[in-house]
Amino acid sequence: MTLPLTDPSNAPSERHGLEEFLDYFRQVVRRKAYGLTPDQLNHTVASSSLTIGGILRHLTLVEESWFVEVLQGKELGEPWSSVDWNTDRDWDFESAAGMTAEELLVVHEQSCEVSRGILAEVVNLDTRTERCDSDGEKFNVRWVLIHLIEEYARHAGHADLLREDIDGEIGD
Length: 172
Known about the structure:
Elements: H1 14-33, H2 38-41, H3 52-71, H4 91-94, H5 101-120, E1 128-132, E2 138-140, H6 141-167
Antiparallel strand pairs: 1-2
Helix pairs in contact: 1-3, 1-6, 3-5, 3-6
């Protein structure tokens, strides 16, 4: 059994298309982790330290960081808030070691649901975030969605290579 995958519409509105493609790539990454053992989730290829578990954990942080922290201007909750990011910049990737696919998928889906709820409250894609970048400029919600699609698509490619090396599964 695999997780379902819903293709984006062929002729969506701008907002609907952005939301559908973000959800599509969320599903792709989740499918790459589904059914793997903790050892398989921690599998690396060549000289890379990337793992499917680490990618999923990182994307959980990405969801919370962009929607809760940047868009709403709120502080991150646990486990993120107690991490010393200056000491361990890759904690999100590394902290997945030993976690099960079910644990990673549940937490990721919860973060996605929170993100969807926050996004549902945004009426206009031109709405600016509460927090700004290092130059003091705020992002609009459209930029955040485009960035998250890019982030998920890049990591979906990484996860695809890892999954193929683990058990030969390809696709998506």
